[in-house]
Design brief:
Elements: H1 10-17, E1 19-22, H2 24-31, H3 37-42, E2 64-66, E3 69-74, E4 79-82, H4 110-113, H5 116-132, E5 137-148, E6 168-177, E7 179-181, E8 183-188, E9 194-198, E10 205-209, E11 213-217, E12 220-222, E13 229-238
Antiparallel strand pairs: 1-10, 2-5, 3-4, 3-5, 5-13, 6-10, 6-13, 7-12, 8-9, 8-11
Length: 245
Amino acid sequence: MLELALPTTPALALQSQGLAFLSPQRLHEALGLPPPWSRSFTELLPAWDRLPPDAHLRDGGRYRHRRHSCYVQSLGSGTVALQPHRAHWQPTDYNALHGGYERWFDPIEAEMAQATAWLTLLQALGQLFAQVRPVTQWFIEAHPFRIDTAGGVGRPTPEGAHRDGVDFVVVMLIGRQGVKGGESRVFEAEGPQGLRFLMTEPLTTLLLDDRRVVHETTPIQPSGEGLGHRDTLVLTYRAGGFQAP
């Protein structure tokens, strides 16, 4: 049975059920993040206000803003290295709506892409995932997202419930303002069990074994007058290389 709260470590939760749910406090504890990390990471959050529009939405929407950058983590040396900018690509088996072609997005801003707090997060997550699936390298894709309600409805996952074709997926809530909806849903890939929950506190983080579960987020709508938005950071970790045509 899938559960959000288990009396165990995130690595064991991933091994036993394919997901781990981390409150902000548990995120710090599980990853061994130093006490100043939250303050340093919070200083990067204005970058979400500068995300350019996603020009590749095939449903005709204008509700998504994003950037994209890639890294390689070498577990032996403990390094996380930013890679030359490349397209984001997924096969249609995993993304029927946007798969099968190269999508080029603006890279993550240089100040954020090389910030110590940012690289510390990428490295700590990779070390945790290596406890579940030992590898020598992780190929990491980073996607800061903003979904807004400018058109009345914003769709965090217009492709529906899906897998990403990687080993592990991280979904971190950065913040939400003036919206309702945006419910997270996780289902067994090969079974009947599922979970539904709402992430509301910034830095709440969901870790997913992409081989074992599928996930989606329901649409958002404005909760009052004015433009609302929901900001997230999605990271994917894959062994063996980046996905490519």
